[in-house]
């Protein structure tokens, strides 16, 4: 099980990094600032793929077992879909205003939100010590944002809303899959068409009149869109598989590693500068990530270590 979990984590990190850099290139480098259209296209592609898989394979048993009825759609599927749609649009919108590295730094606050939401929903048993450890991760990554030269309040607002929506979506998806025992691809089967519909309405209202249709119908652009949607579909599958086999909190903690990797990739690809303070902050984040992993195995020993670190060893001298 441990080996399988690591396979899910590594696969998600790899695909997620590819998707984020790909979207940044499309929205910013290729001068196509239409995140609602891009997200609608992703969800439409996912709808087609899950429909095909449900008819040609046995990969979606939840669909064939008819576990979802109208009441489930109204009370559970639609709320997850709305948070998912909000998270996707807000996060993609932020890439127009902020650098990749700074966005990943802001995402460090997602674990705190997920931990709190999971605690109140009964998905995670937590303690104040665990909250302290997760806070260490967030503080470490937040340090890297000090002196951000490309700061934008508009981008910051979009990303903050995206973080809150993503944390809510992760917890609700975990509840949905546990309560219905719905397999990952079956959940995407129901969520994708609704997500495409809701975001499509927003796209029609806010972006449709400005879309460059002449450019969008060229062969080069169509190929880019198909490949981009393929990566997005693979990421959606990887996300639900990871949540189903671990937890929403593990996903967000793995996201810290992904964010660190993305910072270095953004340096190599986009030339984003990183200061010594930022390296220091990431070191703290990595320390916190490892502490959390060990805390699950030995809470008493790690708890004492955290107290010792926070008090600079003064607690051990009493």
Description:
This protein is mostly helical. Helix content is 81%, strand content 0%. It has 14 helices and no strands. The longest helix has 28 residues. The protein is globular and about 65 Å long. The termini are far apart. The mean pLDDT is 82.
For the termini, the CA-CA separation is: 42 Å
Largest sheet: none
The pLDDT mean sits at: 82
What would you call the structural class?
Answer: mainly alpha
Question: Number of DSSP helices?
Answer: 14
Q: Element order, helices and strands?
A: HHHHHHHHHHHHHH
Number of strands: 0
Low-confidence stretches: none
Query: What share of residues are in beta strands?
Result: under 5%
Based on CA inertia axes, which overall geometry fits? globular
Radius of gyration: 20 Å
Q: Short summary of the structure?
A:
This protein has 318 residues and is mostly helical.
SSE layout:
Blueprint lengths: L1 H28 L5 H22 L4 H4 L5 H28 L2 H7 L3 H12 L6 H16 L9 H28 L3 H23 L6 H4 L2 H27 L2 H23 L5 H22 L1 H12 L8
Descriptive tags:
318 residues; mainly alpha; 81% helix; globular
